[in-house]
Design goal:
InterPro entries: DDP-like_NUDIX, NUDIX_hydrolase-like_dom_sf, NUDIX_hydrolase_CS, NUDIX_hydrolase_dom. GO terms for molecular function: bis(5'-adenosyl)-hexaphosphatase activity; bis(5'-adenosyl)-pentaphosphatase activity; diphosphoinositol-polyphosphate diphosphatase activity; endopolyphosphatase activity; metal ion binding. This is DNA mismatch repair protein MutT. The chain is an alpha+beta fold. It is built from 3 helices and 8 strands. It has a single domain, classed as Nucleoside Triphosphate Pyrophosphohydrolase (Alpha-Beta Complex). The longest helix is centred in the middle third of the chain and has 13 residues. The chain is globular, with a radius of gyration of 17 Å. It starts with a helix and ends in a 7-residue tail after the last helix.
């Protein structure tokens, strides 16, 4: 029989835990005054989403968002330190719940070489493309972008 502490840890493991992540809502202005948003394809299933990943110990979520944007899409730009919004999701392969703090990133350039260039597809969509996002929570959050004066 497991002691009380071991039982508590087993329940946490089986039910998953909250994992802090940061995401980057990357955008750029178009010549006609609108804007485009950058999506990246998931490595697991190719569905469209935003660059996102784990916030390292002691790292600000804005710094993590900019790091993920570079690693996954080669993006360099100006990150808004204020959290634009958040969403959560679960992966099919994990019991964990991922809590994503999303920051706006105004893209100034895209590098020719970046860590995940060969494993991710990227695509720019007009601001009306929020339906392309795979996660329902992300689609809801992105609907707020259309009302911003970026």
């Amino acid at each position: 029989m497991l002691n009380e502490n071991a039982q508590t840890e087993l329940v946490k493991t089986l039910s998953g835990r909250d994992v802090a992540q940061a995401g980057a809502r990357c955008y750029r202005r178009t010549e006609n005054g609108g804007f485009e948003m950058l999506f990246v394809g998931s490595r697991r299933n190719g569905r469209w989403g935003i660059p996102e990943g784990r916030v390292e110990d002691g790292e600000a979520s804005s710094a993590a968002a900019l790091r993920e944007a570079f690693e996954e899409a080669g993006v360099a730009g100006i990150v808004d330190k204020t959290v634009f919004g958040s969403f959560s999701y679960r992966k099919d392969t994990s019991p964990n719940r991922y809590q994503v703090a999303v920051h706006l990133v105004h893209v100034s350039r895209i590098a020719d070489k970046f860590p995940e260039k060969d494993v991710r597809k990227t695509r720019w969509f007009l601001e009306t493309a929020l339906r392309e996002a795979a996660q329902p929570g992300l689609r809801m959050l992105l609907s707020r972008v259309e009302t911003l004066n970026l």
